[in-house]
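Students often ask what a holo structure prediction actually looks like on paper. The answer is less mysterious than it sounds. You provide the chain, you provide the ligand, and the output is a string of discrete structure tokens encoding the 3D arrangement of the protein together with NDP.
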Amino acid sequence: MGVAGRLRVAVLGATGSVGLNTLDVMARHPDRFEVTALTAHRKTDELAALCRTWRPRVAVVAGPDEAEALRSALPVDAVTEVLHGPRALEEVAAHEMVDAVMAAIVGAAGLRACMAAAAAGKRLMLANKEALVVGGALFMQAVQRGGATLLPIDSEHSAIFQCLPTDRSLWNDWIDHIVLTASGGPFRTRAPATLSAVTPEEAVAHPNWVMGRKISVDSATMMNKALEVIEARWLFGLEPSRIRVVIHPQSIIHSMVACRDGSVLAQLGTPDMRVPIAYGLSFPERIESGASRLDFTRMNDLQFEPPDPARFPGLQLAYDALRAPEGATAVLN
Ligand code: NDP
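The corresponding structure tokens follow.
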């Protein structure tokens, strides 16, 4: 812990959608959090602006050119040490000055830093689902051996986590199955014959969430939900047959736990990533996230429908990969 017991946080992928939302939540609670490290890949101007605001001890970028650009964009008396490369990401994630790591790098590039944070026993807030999809059992072993606290940030997995008791040994007995909700993305109702002509801009225009481009495209194809099925398999220790997906276009219910006794527990909220991020930062407490509140009197309709396997063939690939020999999920990713 830092000054006056504040949680010292490293935000990996600080210039991205999840990274910026994390800093937004942290800015609301200067008494609880301090930023120890910020990382980006190539957006050095954006990272320099964040470093001027947050004054982290360390900043990491892709390579020597980006490091030089960042150094020259910072004031001469800056407190921030500038490092570069994947090894530096691992060092930051495992550093003794860091209590908690927000893993918000996109894609498998985030794997090694996540593994380092897990092995070092950090509070690991995992947005970077691809790291768990690729790492699978090895990732979970690293968490267990390192004594890390793994907290899901993906809104669906945070929803499940919020519905479950904090005592993980109860999970298997509690859960009959889980239901991951999916919005269906921008092409849920688009005529299949026109799908081959969609543009990248149409694909990233998500109806409910504002996210980075890669996850937005994955949402349009529902490959994102496929990755989330695999993520859920590892986070909650469930066989694939106990993980179901339903399309819920309003994205108000973020996912559900169907319990053994017939109860179904759901977590609801406006679609705003600051809610699961705030829970990851404050668990087991709850803090203000900045998200607007649900107004039940203005909610007309909550719809549910099964995903169409012809429109979204990628979803089944998750189940196939989980039943295939180990490593298939990494190939799928
Ligand atoms: P963005 O594309 O908005 O941001 C990605 C971040 O990672 C940026 O800071 C980027 O730096 C950095 N980065 C990109 N490539 C590399 C690399 N090779 N090495 C190191 N850093 C890299 O992504 P999102 O914030 O949307 O998503 C981040 C993760 O969170 C993904 O795994 C996504 O699936 C997951 N997630 C996102 C949600 C969302 O609402 N956005 C919701 C749930 C999960 P730079 O800016 O310099 O390129």
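Residues 28 and 288 are 8 Å apart (CA to CA).
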